């Protein structure tokens, strides 16, 4: 059994530039699927049949030149604005593997909290029913601790969370917020359809029990 922080892959297959290379394969696949932040990896080298040309030496910026404006066509004309800008690649390149892994875990936890909040928003009806039971419920309801309403809320929250995860809710922070809103509404629609199907199935069971009782009495 592999450990989370152990190396269960064959020797020599670990990529030091990949912050997830030392994790258990199951945990690594889970984070790659669930976290909206993916590890940055260099592009693979393409094999070439011809002779490899010698790359030209890059121009070294002067000591007084800002490295962020080295490739800018405006030079240092807008140096004060460029000083406040940090490209994403520049930031990722300056981070170690442990820092990138921490960012991935933080993004996963943040997405998990957003999914939980969206699921609770979709279960607002069940929450209202539970609060109403606590405040104005009958004696029988309060004697049972509003167990029926609690079960409905728990079932709604669990099912909505699974739907949101399966449909990729908040799995990409770069896309439009409208996409995630549609996913949230579709998850609620699927749950409401499931509730209606369960109610129909329960009604059919009650009808069958009633029919059997009538036959037994007759």
Question: What features would you highlight for this structure?
Answer:
single chain, mainly alpha, 8 helices
Describe the structure.
This protein is an all-alpha fold. It has a domain of 120 residues. Helix content is 57%, strand content 0%. The radius of gyration is 28 Å and the shape is elongated. The termini are far apart. 13% of the residues are buried. The N terminus is likely disordered.
In summary, what is this structure?
The chain has 218 residues and is an all-alpha fold.
The H/E string reads HHHHHHHH
Whole-Å distance between the termini?
Answer: 62 Å
Oligomeric state of this protein = single chain
Give the averaged pLDDT, no decimals. 77
Calculate Rg over CA atoms.
28 Å
Structural class determined from secondary elements: mainly alpha
Question: Which term fits the overall shape?
Answer: elongated
Number of strands: 0
Q: Show unreliable segments.
A: 1-13
Secondary structure blueprint with pairings:
Layout: H1 25-34, H2 79-82, H3 88-93, H4 97-122, H5 124-136, H6 139-143, H7 147-166, H8 177-217
Biased composition (Basic and acidic residues): 25-36, 194-211
Biased composition (Polar residues): 1-20
Region (Disordered): 1-73, 194-218
């Amino acid at each position: 059994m592999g450990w989370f922080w152990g190396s269960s892959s064959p020797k020599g297959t670990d990529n030091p530039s990949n912050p997830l290379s030392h994790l258990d394969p199951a945990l690594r696949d889970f984070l790659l699927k669930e976290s909206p932040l993916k590890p940055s990896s260099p592009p693979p080298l393409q094999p070439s049949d011809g002779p490899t040309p010698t790359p030209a030496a890059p121009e070294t910026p002067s000591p007084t030149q800002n490295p962020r404006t080295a490739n800018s066509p405006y030079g240092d004309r807008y140096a004060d604005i460029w000083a406040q800008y940090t490209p994403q690649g520049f930031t990722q390149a300056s981070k170690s593997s442990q820092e990138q892994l921490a960012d991935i875990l933080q993004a996963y936890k943040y997405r998990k909290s957003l999914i939980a909040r969206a699921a609770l928003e979709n279960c607002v009806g069940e929450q209202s029913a539970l609060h109403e039971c606590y405040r104005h419920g009958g004696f029988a309801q309060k004697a049972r601790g509003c167990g029926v309403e609690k079960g409905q809320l728990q079932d709604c929250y669990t099912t909505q969370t699974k739907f949101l995860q399966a449909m990729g809710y908040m799995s990409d922070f770069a896309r439009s917020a409208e996409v995630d809103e549609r996913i949230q509404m579709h998850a609620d629609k699927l749950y409401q359809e499931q509730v209606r199907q369960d109610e129909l199935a329960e009604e059919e069971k009650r009808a069958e029990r009633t029919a059997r009782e009538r036959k037994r009495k007759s």
